[in-house]
Specification:
alpha/beta, binds 5'-O-(acetylsulfamoyl)adenosine, globular, GMP Synthetase, Chain A, domain 3, Rossmann fold, 629 residues, 2 domains, 5-stranded parallel beta sheet
Length: 629
C-alpha cells in the first residue's frame, strides 16, 4: 500500500490527484489483487449520480484481505478480541484462522441458499463472529447490512423490509457493561413485521434462553460444524454492491447508503494506511461499534486489507470502571487509538485519577471521529492520553463518504487543535455560500461540498436513486453536499462546524430530528412535536423535544411515557434529554415550524431570537421561553 512519508510528499500527491486523478488512483489500485484489471479508472456524472470506478475490473475484497496477506502474514494476529468482562480471556485470531472461519461461514451461507446479490442483515454484538459474518457475506457476494444491536425491533424491521433481506445473523444476547441484553428476542419481534426473511442464524454468546423457530432459526455452531474451511470467492464486478448501511438524514426514514466493491476497498485501505501511519507490527484499536461506518471501514475492512492487527472490544468504557479504555491500551500495548470526542469528554469528567495506574506509553497516534472535538477535549486527550507527544488525527468523514476525507496524516501534517486540517489526496472540498458560489481563499466559512468523486463515494440510496440525487447532489449543482458547515482559517486549515441541516449528532450518533419527532408522535396523547439539538457538555448535542399534548394526565407522567416510546420505536440512543410541554409551536404563515427559535431557547440563548414578527403565533414564544428547562 502506498504510503506518504512527508509533508512535501503529501503536497506532491495532492497536486497529482488534482491534475491527473486517474493516474493517481490507478497507482494505488495497482497494489491490490484483481481477477481482471479495469478498462478505465473513472466515469462519472454527478447530475444523474452515475459513478463508475475501476470500470469492468473483477475482484473479491476478501481475497485482498486473505489470499493477498496470507503468505506473509498467515500467523500474524488479524483480530484481537477483548470481551466485555475483563476476567474472560481475550481471543487472538491469526489471518489464517480468520480466513478459515470466514470460509467455513461462507459455506454455511451458501448452504442456506445465499447467493450473490442477496441482502443479509447482521444484528450482532461486538464479537469476532460479527466481522466473520461481514467477511463471509463479502466472500459469497451477498450484500451485508449491519444494524447496530442497540436499535429497536421496529428500526430493525424497517431496515429488513427496506432492503428485502433474506437472512438475519444474530446472537442470543449481548453482554454490555453490567447488563445482559436480549438480542434474539428483538429479532423475533421484528420478524413479525417482515416477510422476506427465510432464515436466521444465531450465535451463542450469553447462553440465555431463546426461542428457536423450527425451519427458520439455526445455531451458528451447527451451521458451521459440517462445513470445510475452503471456499471459493465469488468474482464481483468493481461496481457490485458490497454493503448497505442505514443512516439518518433530515427527512423521512433512514436511508440505505450503498457502497460498491472496488472503490470502497481501495479507499478504506489507502486512508487507513496513511491517516494512522500504520507500521507492520503495530496494534491498532478503534473503539467504534461495527454497526456504524467507522466500524466497517476502520475496524474491519481498512485494517484487514492492510494486514494490520485490529482490536475489537465488546464492552463499554465505564465497565468495570472508568479506567477500562486505558487498561486495554496497556494490556495489548496499543499503538494507534481511535475514538469519539463524546467518550473523551465522558472520561475527562472523571479527572486524572482513573489514569494513575496506566502507562499508555505504547501509544503513537491518537484519533478522533464522529463529531466536532472541542478545544478543551482536544487538549485533554492530547496532553493526558497522548502525553503531549502523539499526533492527534481529527478525522472528518461520513457514512456516505465511506472513508476519511479530511484529516491530518499522523506525524506528517502539523497538528492544530479542533481542526480536521487538510483534505486527503484525491479529495477536493469546496466551501460554498447559500447561493452555491464557491468561497475561495482563506478566512471563509460556509457549507462543505466535494466537487470531484473519490473511490468510496455513495453510489445510491437503496431502492430509491432519486432520493440520493435529491439529498446529496441537488442543493449545489455538480457537487456532493455534505450537510456540514466548515471554516477555512488563515492557514488554509479546515475546521468542521457541525451540521447545517436538521440532523443532530448525539454522542457521535447521527439522528434526524424528524425521525425522533415521528417516534414521539406515536404516543397517543401527543398532538405535535418539534425536536432540536442543544449543546451538551458530554454528548456534544443533547435532544430537546417540544411537545403539545392532549392530556388530562400529569406532564411528568407523559414525559416518562414519551421517553419509553422513543426507546421502543428507535432505541435508547434517541431518548430525549429534555422534554418541554408547550401549548403551541412557533410557526411561519406557511405553517413551517421556526426551528431557529426553538434551537435558541433550547440553548438558553434568549437574547437574540431574531425576527419573530412573521410568526403566525408570536405569543407562544414567550410561553416557551418561560417554560424552558
Ligand atoms: C464517521 C461518521 C457523519 C457526520 C458528519 C459530521 C460529523 C464526523 C467529524 C464530524 C466534526 C469530525 N459518520 N462528523 N466526523 N464533525 N469533526 N472529525 O461519523 O455518518 O455517522 O456521521 O458526523 O457532522 O456529517 S456518520
Amino acid at each position: 500500500m502506498q504510503r506518504i512519508n512527508s509533508l512535501s510528499e503529501y503536497f506532491k500527491k495532492y497536486e497529482l490527484s488534482e491534475k491527473n486523478p486517474e493516474s493517481f488512483w490507478s497507482e494505488i489500485a495497482d497494489s491490490f489483487t484483481w481477477k481482471k484489471k479495469w478498462d478505465k479508472v473513472l466515469d462519472w456524472d454527478f447530475e444523474n449520480v452515475s459513478i463508475n470506478w475501476f470500470q469492468n475490473a473483477k475482484l473479491n475484497i476478501t481475497e485482498n484481505i486473505f489470499e493477498r496477506n496470507l503468505k506473509e502474514r498467515g500467523d500474524k494476529t488479524a483480530i484481537i478480541w477483548e470481551p466485555n468482562d475483563p476476567n474472560e480471556s481475550p481471543i487472538h485470531l491469526t489471518y489464517k484462522k480468520l480466513y478459515e472461519e470466514t470460509c467455513r461461514f461462507s459455506n454455511a451461507l451458501r448452504s442456506k441458499g445465499i447467493k450473490k446479490g442477496d441482502r443479509v442483515i447482521i444484528y450482532m454484538p461486538m464479537v469476532p463472529e460479527a466481522a466473520i459474518a461481514m467477511l463471509a457475506c463479502a466472500r459469497v457476494g451477498a450484500v451485508h447490512s449491519v444494524v447496530f444491536a442497540g436499535f429497536s425491533s421496529t428500526s430493525l424491521a424497517d431496515r429488513i423490509n427496506d432492503c428485502q433481506a433474506k437472512m438475519v445473523l444474530t446472537s442470543d444476547g449481548n453482554f454490555r457493561g453490567s447488563k445482559t441484553i436480549p438480542v434474539k428476542s428483538v429479532v423475533d419481534e421484528a420478524l413479525e413485521k417482515c416477510s422476506t426473511i427465510e432464515s436466521v442464524i444465531v450465535l451463542e454468546r450469553t447462553k440465555q434462553a431463546v426461542e428457536m423457530f423450527e425451519g427458520r432459526d439455526f445455531w451458528w455452531h451447527d451451521c458451521v460444524s459440517e462445513e470445510t474451511n475452503i471456499c471459493d470467492a465469488e468474482v464481483l464486478d468493481s461496481e457490485d454492491m458490497l454493503f448497505i448501511l442505514y443512516t439518518s438524514g433530515s427527512t423521512g426514514k433512514p436511508k440505505g447508503v450503498v457502497h460498491s466493491s472496488a472503490g470502497y476497498m481501495v479507499y478504506s485501505a489507502y486512508t487507513f494506511q496513511n491517516v494512522f501511519q500504520y507500521d507492520e507490527n503495530d496494534i491498532y484499536w478503534c473503539t467504534a461499534d461495527v454497526g456504524w461506518i467507522t466500524g466497517h471501514s476502520y475496524i474491519v475492512y481498512g485494517p484487514l486489507l492492510c494486514g494490520a492487527t485490529t482490536v475489537m472490544f465488546e464492552g463499554v468504557p465505564t465497565f468495570p470502571n472508568v479506567s477500562r479504555f486505558w487498561d486495554i491500551v496497556d494490556k495489548f500495548k496499543i499503538n494507534q487509538f481511535y475514538t469519539a470526542p463524546t467518550a473523551i469528554r465522558a472520561l475527562q469528567a472523571h479527572g486524572l485519577e482513573p489514569l494513575k495506574n496506566n502507562s499508555l506509553e505504547s501509544l503513537k497516534v491518537i484519533g478522533s471521529v464522529g463529531e466536532p472535538i472541542n478545544e478543551e477535549a482536544w487538549h485533554w486527550y492530547h496532553d493526558n492520553i497522548g502525553k503531549g507527544n502523539c499526533p492527534l488525527v481529527d478525522t472528518w468523514w461520513q457514512t456516505e463518504t465511506g472513508g476519511i476525507m479530511i484529516s491530518a496524516l499522523a506525524g506528517i501534517t502539523p497538528n492544530k487543535p479542533a481542526h480536521a486540517s487538510l483534505p486527503l489526496p484525491g479529495i477536493h472540498p469546496v466551501i460554498v455560500d447559500p447561493e452555491g458560489n464557491e468561497l475561495v481563499g482563506n478566512n471563509v466559512q460556509g457549507n462543505l461540498c466535494i466537487k470531484f468523486p473519490w473511490p468510496s463515494i455513495i453510489r445510491t440510496t437503496y431502492g430509491d436513486h432519486q432520493r440520493c440525487i435529491n439529498t446529496y447532489f441537488s442543493n449545489y449543482k455538480g457537487m456532493y453536499f455534505t450537510g456540514d458547515g466548515v471554516k477555512r482559517d488563515h492557514d488554509g486549515y479546515l475546521r468542521i462546524l457541525g451540521r447545517v441541516d436538521d440532523v443532530i449528532n448525539v454522542s457521535g450518533h447521527r439522528m434526524g430530528t424528524a425521525e425522533v419527532e415521528n417516534a414521539i408522535n406515536e404516543h397517543e396523547e401527543v398532538i405535535e412535536s418539534a425536536v432540536v439539538g442543544y449543546p451538551h457538555d458530554i454528548k456534544g448535542e443533547g435532544i430537546y423535544a417540544y411537545v403539545i399534548i392532549n392530556s388530562q394526565s400529569s406532564d411528568d407522567k407523559v414525559k416518562g411515557e414519551i421517553v419509553d416510546v422513543v426507546r421502543r420505536v428507535i432505541g435508547p440512543i434517541a431518548k430525549p434529554d429534555k422534554i418541554q410541554i408547550v401549548s403551541g409551536l412557533p410557526k411561519t404563515r406557511s405553517g413551517k415550524i421556526m426551528r431557529r427559535i426553538l434551537r435558541k431557547v433550547a440553548s438558553n440563548d434568549f437574547g437574540n431570537l431574531g425576527d419573530t414578527s412573521t410568526l403566525l403565533n408570536p405569543d407562544v414564544v414567550e410561553e416557551i421561553i418561560n417554560g424552558a428547562n
